[in-house]
């Protein structure tokens, strides 16, 4: 049943008769840009306390998306698979500024597109203390209800780390409960950690082109087909600007460049308008 499959979380590879808890340990991986990932700080002690209190493992690495993910590490082979959970942590002040400059939407889009099913948005601090309390509450509501994120709220750093502890325990418990054989057959296999990294990096490349396509379609005479034709020739704004720079001084050649290179798939007027957008003085 495809619907069941959508709701089922991915599982790491298991040999016949092998149980998750015998084969794997769950490890929380925190992004190394997180403030509490810095060695020697007060937060380092909090991390150690949380690890011993909750009997969990935490490691710090550079993540391409999100502030934390959970992996299953095979006890024998040390192979690592990314479980279906990812968390983005936002302090109330950060959230306020990222709502203002639209980073908030971009970051959420990246989380959605990374392919993991359970998206956790953790808001740290008291929204009421912020001058933008209403916009923060609205953003949380939208994120949770309309976009299907699990929004968690915490009072501060120590509380956040405790929350990570509880979530890690819950994830471990989820995988300990043996899934029926027929469901296991339906479940997707978790991506290896390296593959997950590569997939996220590929997404980043794609996003640049996506943004460029949207910009192009704001230009008069540029249809979706024309935008795609341009992207095939020049996947990024930078690459197109570079091509124009080679023809610097010959405005006529610059205006006609896309028209000629595309064998008229980009109309002469669209070609001229795109040049004006990119190079317009």
Automatic annotation (TrEMBL):
What are the BP-aspect GO terms? cell division; DNA catabolic process; double-strand break repair via break-induced replication; meiotic cell cycle
Q: Give the location in the cell.
A: Nucleus
E.C. designation(s)? 3.1.22.-
- List the GO cellular component terms: Holliday junction resolvase complex; nucleus
The cofactors it requires, by name, are: Mg(2+)
Q: Which InterPro entries match?
A: EME1/EME2_C, ERCC4_domain, Mus81, Restrct_endonuc-II-like, XPF_nuclease_Mus81
- Which is one GO molecular function term here? DNA binding
Q: Identify the keywords attached in UniProt to this record, alphabetized.
A: Cell cycle, Cell division, DNA damage, DNA recombination, DNA repair, Endonuclease, Hydrolase, Magnesium, Meiosis, Metal-binding, Mitosis, Nuclease, Nucleus
**Pfam families reported for this sequence:** ERCC4
The ERCC4 domain is annotated at 27-127
* EC class (word): hydrolase
The family line of this record is: Belongs to the XPF family.
Oligomer and partners:
Interacts with EME1.
Q: What does this protein do?
A: Interacts with EME1 to form a DNA structure-specific endonuclease with substrate preference for branched DNA structures with a 5'-end at the branch nick. Typical substrates include 3'-flap structures, D-loops, replication forks and nicked Holliday junctions. May be required in mitosis for the processing of stalled or collapsed replication fork intermediates. May be required in meiosis for the repair of meiosis-specific double strand breaks subsequent to single-end invasion (SEI).
Please give the PANTHER family that the UniProt record associates with this protein.
Answer: CLASS II CROSSOVER JUNCTION ENDONUCLEASE MUS81 (PTHR13451), CROSSOVER JUNCTION ENDONUCLEASE MUS81 (PTHR13451:SF0)
Name of this protein? Crossover junction endonuclease MUS81
* Naturally occurring in which organism (per UniProt): Citrus sinensis (Sweet orange)
């Amino acid at each position: 049943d495809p619907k069941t499959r959508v709701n089922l979380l991915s599982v790491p590879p298991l040999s016949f008769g092998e149980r998750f808890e015998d084969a794997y340990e769950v490890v929380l991986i925190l992004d190394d840009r997180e403030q509490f990932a810095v060695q020697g700080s007060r937060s380092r002690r909090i991390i150690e306390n949380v690890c011993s209190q909750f009997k969990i493992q935490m490691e710090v690495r550079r993540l391409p998306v999100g502030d934390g993910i959970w992996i299953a590490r095979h006890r024998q082979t040390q192979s690592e698979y990314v479980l279906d959970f990812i968390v983005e942590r936002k302090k109330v002040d950060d959230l306020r500024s990222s709502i203002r400059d639209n980073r908030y939407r971009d970051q959420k889009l990246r989380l959605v597109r990374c392919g993991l099913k359970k998206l956790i948005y953790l808001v740290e601090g008291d929204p009421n203390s912020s001058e933008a309390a209403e916009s923060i509450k609205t953003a949380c509501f939208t994120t949770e209800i309309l976009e299907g994120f699990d929004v968690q709220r915490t009072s501060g750093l120590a509380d956040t780390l405790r929350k990570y502890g509880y979530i890690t325990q819950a994830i471990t418990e989820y995988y300990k409960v043996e899934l029926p054989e027929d469901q296991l057959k339906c479940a997707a296999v978790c991506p290896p950690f390296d593959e997950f990294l590569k997939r996220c990096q590929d997404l980043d490349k794609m996003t640049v082109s996506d943004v460029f396509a949207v910009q192009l379609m704001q230009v008069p005479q540029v249809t979706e087909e024309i935008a795609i034709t341009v992207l095939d020739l020049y996947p990024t704004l930078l690459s197109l600007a570079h091509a124009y720079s080679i023809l610097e001084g010959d405005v006529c050649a610059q205006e006609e460049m896309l028209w000629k290179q595309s064998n008229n798939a980009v109309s002469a007027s669209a070609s001229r308008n795109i040049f004006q957008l990119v190079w317009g003085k």
